[in-house]
Here is the input.
Amino acid sequence: MANAAAPRAKRDLGPAIAGFGLLLAGLLTLELLIRLDILSRYVVPPPSQIALAFERVVLEEGVLSRFLITGGEALAAGLLLTLVGVPAGLLLYRFQLLRAATETWIAAFAAAPLVLAYPLFLVIFGRNASTIVAMGFVSGLAPVILKTLEGLSGIRPVLVDVGRSFKLTPSQMFWRVLLPAALPTIFVGLRLGLIFALINIVGVEFLINFGGLGPLINELAERYDLPGTYAAICFVILISVVVFVSLERVERWLRSTT
Here is the structure.
């Protein structure tokens, strides 16, 4: 077991080291371009100044509590996307008439700039976290539904035939055949949905000046504190990283148990 785990650890570590190296190379290139005045430091601050601003943003701006607020809103939106989006995709897969009637509309809905509808949500929910979570949920719903439908529709017929030959009940067919086969595509949809949700959550926080990191970015930008603004944006990216790593672990766990 130990002999097999070592090569696997090396395989997992390789992409992480390569990714960190590419990120470091990009930051060094950006630093060089700014110091050579090819890029204006009044538009993009040098990465070294952004790094120095992290301590100030953490200690003086309470970024950690704001990080938790935005992360909690993203988590709530993600749970709603999973609980509503995946069953909705399954419903469209089971009922072809419903799929034919709504699939195009759902795809069009995915391309709509829903963030512009935030005044409507303000009227319905008020200026609170419910508006932000609802905007994130609505924005990420279409990709989850469509990718769930795509994953279920792409299952090889032979797998379904094998399930029928064993006289599986509809419930057994779903949990033992359909879900395991469609799981990778469903998680692609969840990742896309959470990306859309997080973009809109931070955007609405910024627009209504309520919540976690969005208002902080707004305040720092109004003070023309560019290093602090970009440092706060890095915390938004950190939420994305946490979400993606968590989803990857959940997907691995589900694939090992189904």
Summary: The longest helix spans residues 170-208. The radius of gyration is 22 Å. The mean pLDDT is 88.
